[in-house]
Write a structure and sequence with these properties.
Number of strands: 20
CATH topology: Metallo-beta-lactamase, Chain A
Strand content: 25-35%
Strand order of the largest sheet: 8-5-4-3-2-1-20
Order of helices and strands: EEEHEHHEEEEEEEEEEHEEEHEHEE
Largest sheet: 7 strands, mixed
Shape: globular
Mean pLDDT: 97
Number of helices: 6
Structural class: alpha/beta
Number of domains: 1
CATH architecture: 4-Layer Sandwich
């Protein structure tokens, strides 16, 4: 299995674009997978420069209903007419970030909802095949991101805190490895890992995705004490973590000092072989 970062907040290569977003290309023995699309078509240009042919992708996963993970979906569908796109049924609901009294739309393009390639998933556990499983409805038990408190959902005339029922995580099983792909881990990366392990009755070996330790709306990080508490709990899971995007570089540096080789930053163009 190989996993290539197509979009992240950081690129160290001049020929690869960066943006506030996330996108991974994953190649397994059976599948060519696109996990999230960033916020624009930049991931497509990066894929070309990295030698990744997105027309051959057969499976697309959109982790949740935010623009920085599904904003490039329209561009992808114009490029690829055969891939199946799996997205939670409520991911097209109206989602906003809140700053004082101002609301800013951060949701998806709702015109894509009825496209033939879209599969709206309405289950907590959805088995695509023997090697691919989607897990949703993760309970926020401990160390969930504090930055969630500025993220809301419109329900009629009401504004409610987003419970992130639209967030889903992909598990890939191959060669005795269990790889967990998360988007922003709004339900808490620790909660996701522990609850996926419980449902699988096995242990995740590798985790990819953001941890949402950086609040973009308010431009603040979670405090170091809480970040270190999270790091200590993640070490107990025995998994290796590859993070970026909404984790933020400052929080990553704090985690790296504690977790050493159990965590790495995966910027645009990084290619991880598992």
């Amino acid at each position: 299995m190989r996993i290539i970062n197509l979009i992240d907040n950081i690129s160290y290569q001049s020929d690869l674009k960066s943006e506030h977003g996330l996108s991974f290309y994953i190649e397994t023995k059976k599948h060519k997978i696109l996990f999230d699309t960033g916020q624009s078509s930049a991931f497509i240009e990066n894929a070309k420069n990295l030698g990744v042919d997105l027309t051959q992708v057969d499976t697309v996963i959109i982790s949740h209903g935010h623009y920085d993970h599904g904003g490039g979906l329209k561009a992808f569908l114009e490029l690829n007419s055969q891939a199946r796109v799996y997205i939670q049924a409520n991911a097209f609901n109206p989602y906003y970030s809140k700053n004082s009294d101002q609301l800013h739309y951060i949701g998806l393009d709702t015109s894509l909802m009825d496209k033939n390639q879209i599969k709206l998933v309405d289950r907590d556990t959805y088995v695509i095949d023997q090697s691919l499983i989607l897990y949703a409805s993760i309970k926020q038990i401990k160390l969930s991101p504090l930055g969630n408190n500025v993220l809301v959902e419109k329900r009629g005339f009401d504004i409610k805190e987003d419970p992130f029922l639209h967030e889903q995580n992909l598990v890939i099983q191959e060669n005795n490895h269990i790889v967990l792909m998360a988007g922003c881990a709004h339900n808490g990366v620790l909660n996701i890992v522990e609850q996926v392990n419980a449902r699988l009755k096995s242990s995740v070996t590798h985790v990819f995705g953001g941890f949402h330790l950086y609040n973009l709306t308010k431009d603040v990080y979670e405090d170091d004490k809480r970040i270190l508490e999270l790091g200590n709990e993640l070490l107990k899971t025995k998994a290796c973590f590859f993070t970026g995007h909404c984790t933020g570089t400052k929080a990553f540096d704090t985690l790296k000092q504690l977790m050493k080789d159990k965590i790495d930053y995966i910027s645009v163009g990084r290619n991880i072989e598992i």
